[in-house]
Specification:
Rossmann fold, 189 residues, alpha/beta
Length: 189
């Protein structure tokens, strides 16, 4: 947590709940963590206690930025540029924890389905993934101008994708966030 404190540890209300429930408890010094859509490292900082942090990003311009932002942890980073919804160059059954926040809310349902297949491929048996995704059925989207900011997803769609990829749905949090949900998935052992 030292790195997080140095880089602004203030996380407002419900995001602090997400951090505690869906991220920090899965990261140990032995963890191989993978983050999809790190951007500038807002959530990456909480993965830094892990043994290795695999950063999957469409925009490789973020890679040198993350190395500069977290110089004391740069040796832990493994950067993977994705062309779309793939996780290239990451071995099957090699990751202990997958996290994504602020990314899947913008991915169309078909892309989410593809990513879930890739997440299942890279996770070790018994390991988990925490994924935040948009839910357009929530009251937040009553104002029409907000609709285009998020993909056309909802909870039943996500549960169908989870089932289709034979994940165990450990938790489906529909209450913590006003515009999105968080699923906690486990790859069967």
């Amino acid at each position: 947590m030292a790195a997080a404190a140095r880089h602004g540890d203030r996380v407002p209300g419900n995001l602090a709940k997400v951090r505690k429930r869906y991220l920090e408890r899965f990261v140990t010094p032995e963890t191989v963590a993978l983050e999809i859509g790190s951007g500038g490292g807002r959530w990456t900082r909480y993965l830094l206690p892990a043994h290795e942090v695999i950063v999957v990003e469409l925009n490789s311009d973020f890679f040198p930025y993350l190395e500069k932002r977290f110089p004391e942890s740069a040796h832990k980073f493994r950067f993977v540029e994705t062309p779309g919804y793939e996780i290239p160059d990451v071995e099957n059954d090699s990751v202990d924890f997958v996290f994504s926040f602020g990314t899947f809310v913008h991915i169309d349902p078909e892309g989410i389905d593809e990513y879930l297949g890739e997440i299942r491929r890279v996770l070790r048996p018994g390991s988990v993934a925490s994924i935040q995704y948009g839910d357009r059925t929530k009251k937040y989207f009553a104002r029409r101008e907000r609709i285009e900011l998020f993909s056309d997803m909802n909870a039943p769609q996500m549960e169908g994708f989870v089932k289709g990829h034979a994940f165990e749905l450990v938790e489906h949090d529909r209450k913590t966030l006003n515009h999105s949900n968080v699923v906690l998935l486990r790859k069967p052992a």
